[in-house]
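Teaching soon. Invent one.


***
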Amino acid sequence: MKLTVTLRDLVSAVSEYAEDENEVIATVMHLVQSGRVRLAGGSWSDDFTESPA
């Protein structure tokens, strides 16, 4: 089942359990890219691409 949430709600929920900002960003990106969650309110998920290191 895919959960549809706003970016704000997803970041808030992940922030409660993450140890730092890097973990929040990595977790949110993983959840969106893997299809586990869908962001409400537009095509935000298309903007989640990994940048080269």
The beta strands are 3-5, 37-39. The chain has two helices and two strands.
